[in-house]
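User: Can you help me understand a structure? I only have the sequence.
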Amino acid sequence: MSSATSKVAEIGLAQETGFKMFNRIVDWITSDRMQLINITDRINEIVRKSGVREGMVHLQSLHTTTAVFINEWQDALLQDVRTCLDDLINRENPWRHNNPEYSDCERKNADSHLRGMIMGQSLCLQVRNSTVLLGTWQSIILAEFDGPRSRSMSVQVSGV
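Assistant: Let's start by predicting it. Here is the structure, written out as tokens:
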């Protein structure tokens, strides 16, 4: 089967099975340099609007100084996350990215890049019954490491 025939067959299969692909760019304006935002409800709203009942949702931050992750949304734990990241990556270290001798970045935000890298900028989660499948205590959290700023995330929902 040629690649053109194969692509036509894939498109035909998608139409027969009701496969959907739904894309959105979602924006937030953060207010602090390090900020954690519970985005679970907003992501579930997008999943519901997509019309996908069973499938996947892929979240991708469009910034290198943010992250998206799953954890419990509980005040003490959120403070522990901040403390852990502060202890792990000290903002005051002599990072080359912050040094004009090595870098043209004026934001002096090497720590923000490193935190984003460690935490990760994307998630892929299951969609079941038109909602994101999460455990009892799980929430989807957007982490800002270089705010306040305007932030964007790509959300792609696929399935049937």
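Now, to help you interpret it: The chain has a mean pLDDT of 93. The first helix runs from residue 3 to 17. Let me know which part you'd like to focus on.
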